[in-house]
Design goal:
single chain, alpha+beta, 5 strands, globular
């Protein structure tokens, strides 16, 4: 499958911005709901899937498959590769890396102790 250069660049930009891509596995033709190329045209789901498979074969992303969806997550090598392909400086990081600390788990906000039965 030939993937146009504009489509590949759009997938790379989306992956770098979000840190992950979800592709629904289906035999029906269709477009990816979130990715658009530079001409603001829709990108075919098959092209997104083939681009992600190519990155996976080079160990630049990690794939999880569940409930008819492929989940591709960017790793450190992938960040470096996309930075080079998209001509981005070293200081630019994907949004998933820039997020702050995780929120505490519900009921776990008092010195790491869970509430006991009489704290209600």
């Amino acid at each position: 499958v030939h993937v146009p250069k504009a489509t590949k660049k759009a997938v790379y930009q989306y992956l770098f911005e979000n840190g992950c891509v979800v592709v629904k596995k289906t035999n029906l033709p269709g477009n990816h709901p979130d990715i658009r190329n530079s001409e603001d045209a829709e990108v075919e789901r098959l092209h997104v899937w083939m681009t992600m498979r190519s990155l996976q074969s080079r160990d630049l992303v990690k794939e999880n498959y569940a409930w008819s969806h492929h989940y591709y997550f960017l790793n450190e090598a992938g960040i470096d590769y996309l930075r080079k392909e998209l001509h981005l400086p070293e200081s630019v990081m994907p949004n998933i890396v820039n997020k702050g600390p995780a929120r505490p788990v519900r009921g776990d906000d008092r010195d790491g102790r869970r509430p006991s039965g009489d704290d209600r």
